[in-house]
UniProtKB/TrEMBL annotation:
One Gene Ontology term from the biological process aspect of the record: monosaccharide transmembrane transport
Pfam families the record matches: ABC_tran
Stored PANTHER family: CARBOHYDRATE TRANSPORT ATP-BINDING PROTEIN MG119-RELATED (PTHR43790), GALACTOSE_METHYL GALACTOSIDE IMPORT ATP-BINDING PROTEIN MGLA (PTHR43790:SF7)
GO CC annotation: plasma membrane
Keyword Repeat: yes
UniProt membrane topology term: Peripheral membrane protein
Function: Part of an ABC transporter complex involved in carbohydrate import. Could be involved in ribose, galactose and/or methyl galactoside import. Responsible for energy coupling to the transport system.
Documented EC number(s): 7.5.2.11
Protein name: Ribose/galactose/methyl galactoside import ATP-binding protein
Keyword Transport tagged: yes
UniProt keyword terms in alphabetical order: ATP-binding, Cell membrane, Membrane, Nucleotide-binding, Repeat, Sugar transport, Translocase, Transport
Family the UniProt entry places it in: Belongs to the ABC transporter superfamily.
Top EC class of this enzyme: translocase
Length: 503
């Protein structure tokens, strides 16, 4: 048995107040394989990995690594033993360099007796060697804060590889990567597999799972449903195992018919000359306008400017026929605009605040009495109601949002903006890191919102989502609009043609 599996987790049980997070879960991982760990948000995947990594201590069960029982009391113990992990949420130090982040806590020292001085030259040399070996074009001396999200994710992958681990856990490693970068990651994974390294791969992107996985384990409601050879399953079978029911279609029917123009953007240009320039488009009432483009197309930057988060030097914004000035998010909210940002952890959640506070924080003004006092009972009722509608999994509304899974955090953010009752909702990668069951629920909510007369701008890097949910698609490339596609003419090839139109 010890030769067959590099890692065994035997009947792991973990309970939190009011929640049985893991119920006798077992996982067996072979060396030199990619083992996909699948399940809806809240199924227990992250909790199981935290038990492996020494972040949580199981109430019962056993971890066997290289044939020997182990108990990791900390992340450092796990790393030292040969298990590394790429977190879904980036955990770097923004004001430190790539090299410093890579070797933090284990820096090589100068051979000076009695002194503990970091050998900065060796730190740089080792980082250059590491990046070169992974074929990554990143400046080791650049501060992490200066890198794009996708570059930061690449650095996290490089850091995990640098430990020389025999087991590498990858939690949503491609959530911020372009298609080309995903291909690069898969090359790295295949190289690791050839070196007999085991990869535990967590992702909600079905096409990736069937492209890279050897085995697939499925969890549901804190229990292990089973482990399967990847060749035995297809998308429908896997979805059925994950959510406990069959699914007949990936996207709900969007029956809303777009009406009059509710938002006009005319010749909008960023203060940054390298960002979006001279952008014009219309959004109609009851319309889902998809926004496509490759990483670096300036999609998020454009929408953040419309929401008052970025400065502009030219152009105008017209809401319901009236030209408006939006200098801050407060202005945007007052004009009926909401924004779900791309970076959930960095600019979406308030990690130390409760689910209740995170849900209600943008809409408190509408719950004030004539004496300016907040009607807390109404706030609580509506916040509970919206999270119930979204099927947010949380022990209570007073739970800190940082203790929720990434997908459930995203549901809370969506609920936050639904409580403001916006006329226009900008959704930047709304289903990133969300499981297939929850995705359908969010798609259904989007369809219901536009049917009720709301309008949605949806930025998405998932081509099927972009095509499946949009009435029209606006495509950007290098900060310029390169095309508009009606639903009937929107194909992957048509979107990519516009997305790569550099002229």
């Amino acid at each position: 048995m010890s030769n067959e599996y590099v890692l065994q987790m035997k009947e792991i049980t973990k309970q939190f107040p009011g929640v049985l997070a893991l119920n006798k879960v077992s996982l067996n991982v072979r060396p030199g394989t990619v083992h996909a760990l699948m399940g809806e948000n809240g199924a227990g995947k992250s909790t199981l990995m935290k038990c492996l990594f020494g972040i949580y201590h199981p109430d019962s069960g056993e971890v066997v690594f290289h044939g020997k029982p182990v108990k990791f009391s900390s992340v450092k113990n796990a790393l030292d033993a040969g298990i590394s992990m790429i977190q879904q949420e980036l955990s770097n130090v923004p004001l430190r360099t790539v090299a410093e982040n890579t070797w933090m806590g284990r820096e090589p020292l100068l051979p000076v007796k009695g002194l503990h001085l970091i050998d900065h030259r060796k730190v740089m040399e080792e980082t250059v060697r590491l990046m070169k070996g992974l074929d990554m074009d990143v400046d080791p001396g650049a501060k992490m804060s200066s890198l794009s999200i996708s570059q930061q994710q690449g650095c996290e992958i490089a850091k995990a590889v640098s430990y020389g681990a025999s087991v590498v856990v990858m939690d949503e490693p491609t959530s911020s990567l372009s298609e080309k970068e995903v291909e690069h990651l898969f090359r790295i994974i295949n190289d690791l597999r050839k070196k007999n390294v085991a990869i535990i791969y967590i992702s909600h992107r079905m096409n990736e799972i069937f492209q890279i996985a050897d085995e697939i384990s499925v969890m549901r409601d804190g229990e292990m449903i089973g482990t399967y050879d990847a060749k035995e399953l297809d998308t429908d079978k896997l979805i059925n195992l994950m959510i406990g029911r069959s699914t007949t279609q990936q996207f709900p029917e969007v029956t809303a018919v777009p009406g009059d123009v509710c938002l006009s953007v005319r010749h909008l240009s960023s203060v940054n000359p390298r960002s979006f320039q001279d952008v014009s488009f219309d959004l109609h009432k009851s319309e889902i306008l998809g926004v496509g483009g490759l990483i670096g197309a300036q999609r998020s930057e454009l929408m953040e400017a419309i929401f008052g988060l970025r400065g502009v030097v030219a152009g105008e914004i017209v809401v319901n026929g009236k030209q408006v000035t939006i200098r801050s998010p407060k202005d945007a909210i007052r004009h009926g605009i909401g924004l779900i940002t791309e970076d959930r952890r960095g600019s979406g959640i308030f990690p130390l605040m409760s689910v209740m506070s995170n849900t209600s924080i943008a809409s408190l003004d509408k719950y004030r009495s004539k004496l300016r006092l907040i009607r807390h009972a109404e706030v609580s009722k509506d916040a509970v109601g919206v999270n119930k509608t979204l099927r947010t999994k949380t022990a209570s509304m007073q739970t800190q949002i940082q203790n929720l899974s990434g997908g459930n955090q995203q549901k809370v953010i969506l609920g936050r903006w639904l409580m403001t009752v916006p006329d226009i909702l900008i959704m930047d990668e709304p289903t990133r890191g969300i499981d297939v069951g929850a995705k359908y629920e969010i798609y259904t909510i989007m369809a219901e919102l536009v049917k009720a007369g709301k309008s949605i701008i949806m930025i998405s890097s998932e081509m099927s989502e972009l095509i499946g949910m949009s009435h029209r698609i606006m495509v950007l490339c290098n900060g310029k609009v390169t095309g508009f596609l009606q639903k009937e003419e929107a194909t992957q090839e048509a979107v990519m043609r516009c997305a790569t139109q550099f002229s």
